[in-house]
Design brief:
globular; 16% strand; 8 strands; 8-stranded mixed beta sheet
């Protein structure tokens, strides 16, 4: 089985619609794909309706968190999307995305970059607006060559010249909320240092004690040394090890299935989840 547990659609900052995402996942030879848009579950219905036969969909979300001033992302799998407490927190985070992006545009204008909010809004196309949409606008203007090059201290990285904070959930609270909604919680790309400061291993240990289920180890932003270190940490803490592409369509160069999760780990995730079940494809629309 080929299992990719971290992908984005146009409901957040990917470029594939939910229907395109599942069709492309099947074409890439995946057996299981997780839809993990940022702080939203809005893409579920379209993805399920288009789900090809032979492909299983894991519903999820990537939750925006912050601990000790450090941004981090928590992948939540197979939770009840209508559970009211987690739903309210996701909406609070999502609602803060617009003023945050507008603030980044204003800072860029102050730095002499002629980006407009209207252009960023069109790029987001109704999805949960975020830094990748602003970064795409910078690429269009020729300010940076790629979206990834916008995530530096010069521009949009944490603490960068055009960075603006947004509401982010305390990860200990996020784990509690995900568990309360019947879900499974995995720390996304925990050693992605090029994105900014990373969470210390001592805090990861505390998160494990608070109910964290796993670490996303095999990821494009982790080199071989980081993966080996994270595997050792996961074993020490009794955490699951996942792998995934963090696919964003054409917004990033990574392909679907670039990194994958062991079928036994996937089976354990589905066993632990009580809020929702994987959805098998029946042919799609």
């Amino acid at each position: 089985m080929r299992i990719d547990l971290h992908c984005h659609s146009t409901a957040s900052d990917g470029t594939d619609t939910p229907a395109e995402l599942v069709r492309n996942a099947a074409a890439a030879g995946l057996d299981v794909v997780a839809l993990t848009d940022h702080d939203t579950t809005r893409a579920y219905a379209e993805a399920i309706a288009a789900l090809p036969e032979g492909l299983t969909l894991v519903t999820g979300a990537e939750l925006s968190c912050r601990v000790d001033g450090i941004s981090m992302h928590l992948l939540a799998y197979l939770f009840d999307p209508e559970e009211p407490v987690l739903l309210a927190e996701r909406e609070l985070v999502r609602d803060d995305r617009v003023p945050r992006a507008q603030g980044m545009v204003a800072k860029l204008n102050g730095l002499g970059v002629p980006v407009t909010w209207e252009r960023v809004e069109r790029i987001a196309a109704g999805g949960s607006v975020g830094r990748p949409h602003v970064a795409t606008a910078l690429v269009e203007l020729g300010v940076v060559p790629t979206v990834g090059d916008a995530f530096t201290e010069e521009w949009l990285a944490d603490g960068g010249r055009a960075f603006v904070e947004k509401h982010e959930t305390d990860p200990f609270e996020a784990i509690r909320l995900v568990k309360g909604a019947g879900g499974v919680a995995v720390f996304a790309h925990p050693a992605a240092a090029k994105r900014g400061r990373t969470v210390p291993e001592s805090v990861i240990a505390e998160l494990a004690a608070a109910g964290l289920d796993g670490l996303e180890v095999d990821h494009m932003d982790h080199d071989a040394d980081a993966r080996a270190r994270l595997r050792g940490l996961a074993e020490e803490l009794g955490l699951l090890v996942t792998g995934s592409s963090d696919y964003h369509g054409s917004r990033k160069t990574v392909s679907l299935g670039a990194c994958t999760t062991d079928p036994e780990v996937y089976g354990e995730i589905t066993r632990r989840a009580t809020g929702a079940f994987p959805v098998p494809g029946t042919g799609g629309a």
